[in-house]
UniProtKB/TrEMBL annotation:
It comes from Ceratodon purpureus (Fire moss). It holds the Pfam family PK_Tyr_Ser-Thr. GO terms for molecular function: ATP binding; protein serine/threonine kinase activity. InterPro entries: Kinase-like_dom_sf, LRR_dom_sf, LRR_Rcpt-Like_S/T_Kinase, Prot_kinase_dom, Protein_kinase_ATP_BS, Ser-Thr/Tyr_kinase_cat_dom, Ser/Thr_kinase_AS. Residues 536-598 are annotated as: Disordered. Residues 258-531 form the Protein kinase domain. The chain crosses the membrane at residues 187-211. This is Protein kinase domain-containing protein. PROSITE patterns: PROTEIN_KINASE_ATP (PS00107), PROTEIN_KINASE_DOM (PS50011), PROTEIN_KINASE_ST (PS00108).
């Protein structure tokens, strides 16, 4: 799991135990958690949380187990800990306060654990009557301190290289530079030698990875294990009707041997290349990162191809073919020349018109409705966001990246095997239920709808008022209506009643409680009448007709265009997650050709 903890979690005021340890969560601890005062255990260890540890966290009267170790917290300790805390783990952070916490007086601290290894404090802990109080810092910036009280009267002897700082509070401080012993110099030398050894090890690992990457790439370009290819490849297996079974040589020729110059994106499934074929067709070629190593794995891939071949809708990116030769998993899709919605919303100099935005919102809703209600089995996308919404030459929206998928007994549906969602669009209830439903896609769609209305990003750290779009829009819309949140690029040239309805629907779709969200079928029933009743602006004002060709880096067949992967993978995201921009030109991309003969 990754991303930040959603602020909506604060609504769970009856929660007693929160365990999110051993993940890759980032960001700060949300302030909304301060309302969850019934917590007895909070374990956020081994993540990437940062910022100060909230002061209110120390005052939870029922909290006994607090584990925040192995993160990137900064700042200092509070004045006094809550007497309810019996296990405190704060080691391996960047805490550097002026003092360690005061242990409450007149308390029996038998069997209590306080661990702040790998932090740095200029003074040492204050204690009244502990049976065991351990602060053993393992880096050279901190001094070791061990206090064992027999009767709570006398202060312990300060460690070597320290001197008394306050005899009343029993604290110690480092001695002056002149009194440092030779052991410190030896420790510094040992540390430098260890650091150099660590650098050499890291360099060796990097070189090894580069060598492996080069070897793997050579293998994927054409030098495959012939025994594996003969074992897995079954020429008698019949491809689904309407889906072309490509030979590896065809795809290799179309992409220049899967050259980096043809690479247009990287996602959870693998890399995406633009392929230019001899018949003039341009297609998107999506290649899995690894190789199939068993007949079972190949059978699963073929089942996925069969599933995707059944999904036909004008608002879904069309599967054109596949390749299962030599242990590879490659999917071939139609190529969407106008890129993704994210680029048009946030990276384009020209703004989408209000009509284009409404039309895109309706198109995406139709695509998701089809996946949820008409696909057999139903498909849960799990990563609905603007970069997974592609646009054709007419700016018709098509949902992408809804396969590869796997069956789940829990839902009796197909769910993408990619990592579960993107920060800002991810269903917050998944943290609690650990269950995906169609309502998870509805939440992501609601955020996309708000982006279309506001022109704001789902997560924007520069939006100081509130970097989460849902939390930014909800109070402003409640106070000032649509004019308080509408995209300023639209000016006054938009139907306010329609955008008012779009905003209301977006906020309803992004409610924390999944049972209060509408279904995609209900979303379509709300938006479709608005589109039907609206008059499309004249061509001179229509975004699709005035959209200027964007500069392109895409190579065409036989061209000598100088081209690097850096200029594309960061600027175009085709059926992948991670890229935001768009640089394309219809003059450099071949025009559509007749369908490939079957």
């Amino acid at each position: 799991m990754w991303g930040g903890i959603p602020s909506e979690i604060g609504a769970l005021t009856r929660m007693r135990v929160l365990r999110l340890y051993s993940n890759t969560f980032t960001g700060r601890i949300p302030d909304t958690i301060k309302s969850m005062t019934n917590m007895t255990e909070i374990r956020l260890s081994q993540n990437y949380f940062s910022g100060d540890i909230p002061q209110w966290l120390w005052s939870f009267t029922k909290l006994s187990n607090l584990q925040l170790d192995k993160n990137s917290f900064t700042g200092s300790y509070p004045g006094t800990l809550s007497p309810s805390i019996t296990n405190l783990q704060l080691d391996c952070n960047y805490l550097n306060g002026t003092s360690l916490p005061v242990l409450p007086p007149n308390r029996n601290f038998t069997d209590k654990t306080w661990d702040v290894d790998e932090n740095c404090f200029p003074t040492q802990p204050q204690a009244s009557k502990p049976n065991q109080c351990r602060f053993a810092a393992s880096n050279m910036l901190c001094d070791q301190f061990l206090a064992n009280y027999a009767n709570g009267v006398a202060c312990p002897i300060c460690p070597e290289n320290q001197e008394p700082n306050n005899s009343t509070l029993c604290t110690c401080k480092p001695k002056g530079p002149a009194q440092h012993s030779k052991t410190n110099s030896a420790a510094v030398i040992a540390g430098v030698v260890g650091a150099l050894a660590g650098v050499l090890i890291v360099v060796g690992i990097i070189l090894g990875l580069l060598w492996k990457r080069k070897k793997d790439r050579a293998k994927l370009v054409g030098r495959f294990d012939k025994n594996l290819a003969e074992e897995l490849y079954d020429p008698n297996w019949q491809a689904p009707h309407g889906v072309h079974r490509y030979k590896l040589s065809e795809l290799s020729n179309a992409t220049g041997g899967f050259d980096e110059a043809h690479e247009i994106g990287v996602g959870g499934f693998g890399k995406v290349f633009v392929g230019n074929f001899k018949d003039g067709r341009t297609l998107a070629i999506k290649r899995a990162s690894g190789l199939v190593s068993s007949t079972q794995g190949l059978a699963e891939f073929r089942n996925e191809v069969l599933l995707l071949s059944r999904l036909h809708h004008r608002n879904l990116v069309r599967l054109e073919g596949f390749c299962d030769e030599s242990g590879l998993e490659i999917l071939v899709y139609e190529f969407m020349r106008q890129g993704n919605l994210h680029a048009h919303l946030f990276s384009s100099k020209k703004s989408l018109s209000w009509y284009n935005r409404l039309e895109i919102a309706v198109g995406v809703a139709h695509g998701l409705e089809y996946l949820h209600s008409y696909a057999d089995p139903p498909v849960i996308h799990r990563d609905v966001k603007p970069s997974n919404i592609l646009l054709d030459d007419n700016l018709t929206a098509k949902v992408a990246d809804f396969g590869i998928s796997r069956a789940t007994d829990e839902l009796a549906t197909h769910v993408s095997t990619r990592p579960a969602g993107t920060a800002g669009y991810f269903d917050p209830q998944y943290f609690i239920r650990q269950q995906l439903t169609t309502a998870s896609d509805v939440y992501g769609y609601g955020v996309v709808l708000l982006e279309l209305v506001t022109g704001q990003r789902a997560i924007d750290r520069e939006r100081t008022a509130e970097f989460n779009l849902v939390e930014w829009a909800r109070p402003r819309f409640a106070e000032g209506g649509i004019e308080a949140i509408a995209d300023r690029k639209l000016g006054d040239d938009y139907p306010k009643d329609v955008f008012q309805a779009m905003a209301e629907l977006g906020l309803e779709c992004s409610l924390f409680d999944k049972d209060q969200r509408p279904s995609m079928k209900e979303v379509v029933s709300v938006l479709e009448p608005h589109l039907s009743n609206c008059v499309k602006p004249p061509p001179s004002h229509d975004y699709s007709s005035t959209w200027e060709s964007m500069e392109s880096d895409f190579p065409t067949r036989g061209s000598n265009t100088s081209f690097t992967a850096a200029s594309t993978s960061s600027n175009y995201d085709h059926m992948t997650s991670g890229s935001d921009g768009l640089k394309m030109s219809s003059s450099l991309i071949p025009k559509p050709a007749p369908p490939l003969p079957r």
